[in-house]
Amino acid sequence: MAKSKSDKDRKIFVLDTSVILYAHNSIMTFAEHDVVIPITVLEELDHFKKGNDSKNFEAREFIRLLDKLSMDNMIHNWTPLNGKSKGFFKVLMNPENAMNANEIFGEEKNDHKILNAALHLKQVEQGRKVILVSKDINLRLKAKSLDLFAEDYETGKVKNIDELENTGMFHMDGIEGSLIDKLYESHAVESKLILGTKKRKANAFYILRSEKNSVLAFYNSEDNSMERVDKKLAYNIKPKNAEQTFALHALLNPKIKLVSIQGVAGTGKTLLALAAALEQRREYKQIFLARPIVPLSNKDIGYLPGDIKSKLNPYMEPLWDNLKFIQNQFHETDKEFQKISELVNQEKLVIQPLAYIRGRSLSNIFFIVDEAQNLTPHEIKTIISRAGENTKIVFTGDVFQIDTPYLDSQSNGLSYLIDRAKDHPLYAHIKLEKGERSELANLANDLL
Fold it and tell me: Most buried of 89, 108, 403, 424 (most Cβ within 10 A)?
């Protein structure tokens, strides 16, 4: 379809493969502007279309979407994107350019073909702003070195990551001592006596201090009250600080169906979640503990020796370590020690890679997802959307410790969840700050 002269004011966004694998519907999110997909991107997507990971799903869904949008049109020509106020798209074949990225960077690779596509558009679409969109930082830097505009894919990104620091837990000083005494005596007080006209945040936790004493409290949005939070044991695991106490309270609260726990290594995120699951084992049919597989140096696990179980064991070992730590709180002859072995043997407690569990039914399950910062927003949504009756889902991770190349602190699924779900009555978030692993581990987190 021919484009009118009035379209000259619209920008042209060139998408690379990383954007498609992050969000298959990204092509539809550029308002009235036009989108170009280099043919190299389709070639790369062909390698991703088989498999069970989210990137395989995104690749397949994008190919289907492109097929639907193209209908009877030749997609190397401008084709309208369906929907009001949408622009056009096309697939660009490998063009011939006066400036060749392969020659400039001294190597022929797919990234450079994508750069050549953007260079070609800049040359032939005179007067229009051409922008390369990529989640690959290095590719964006290369584009800028060629005098091309380049930017990250911003849709779904948390705009102010610092605001997440103030989600879920608050400190309040200057509270009347009589109110704190009342909380100790009667367990709960009307929220207005403490919060006054301050905005209530569902399932928020508070450290309340007067001149002489303090108390840990929880805002119960159901009856609009402030409740005292006491330290509780979960399968013989005792919280060591206020944040861990809050985390266990949320994990053990049957009315809170979705919990996220953020914190650096050694703060006890996974340990507390697993202990809470074991404490409530009678309330659920199964306990699932899973984590995404992020191979070292971003190599595929296929390069590791052995069968599939041998390949995956190194990635699951930290989860087994937490289970062994809880089990070792008891003597081998104790029924609690033996119960854990029994749960594992009967597959009522399952530790597996997330890809192995993603397709299963999530009804009557306590589901813990470790290292959730390595998930995309779409993966987080997919997991939660599969929750059935009597299911509780817990995401743990550190939004500043990303192990995948195309995610960052603002675009990862855990940050997205905290930002979008805050204040929902079914959701609670806790940030663990103090490392409890050892003094040596704390030194590493604080100084190195």
Answer: 89
In whole numbers, what is the pLDDT of the chain averaged over residues?
88
Where does residue 42 rank: exposed (0-12), middle (13-18), buried (19+ CB within 10 A)? middle
The two beta strands, 205-209 and 149-151, are unpaired
Residues sharing a CB contact under 8 Å with residue 441, sequence separation 6 or more, in sequence order: 265, 266, 435
- Please list, in sequence order, all residues whose beta carbon lies within 8 angstroms of the beta carbon of residue 36, skipping any fewer than 6 positions away: 12, 13, 14, 15, 89, 90, 91, 92, 117, 121
Cβ-proximal residues to 303 (8 Å cutoff; 6+ apart), any chain: none
| 130-133 and 12-15 strand pairing | parallel
DSSP letter (8 states) at residue 286: E
Side-chain-facing half-sphere of 256: CA atoms under 13 Å: 28
What are the tens digits of pLDDT across the range 427-448? 999 999 877 666 776 677 677 6
Residue range 389-425, pLDDT digits in tens: 999 999 999 999 998 888 999 999 999 999 999 989 9
- Cα–Cα distance measured from residue 149 to residue 131, given in angstroms and rounded to the nearest whole number: 5
Q: What percent of the chain has pLDDT over 90?
A: 67
pTM for the whole structure: 0.84
Sheet containing 427-432, strands listed edge to edge, beginning at the edge strand earlier in sequence: 349-353, 286-291, 365-369, 392-397, 258-263, 427-432
Residue 55 has a pLDDT of 86
DSSP state of 397: E
Which domains, ranges and CATH numbers included, belong to the chain?
6-151 (3.40.50.1010), 161-167+232-447 (3.40.50.300)
Beta bridge partners of 145: none
Q: pLDDT digit string (tens) for 207-241?
A: 999 998 999 999 999 889 999 999 999 999 999 99
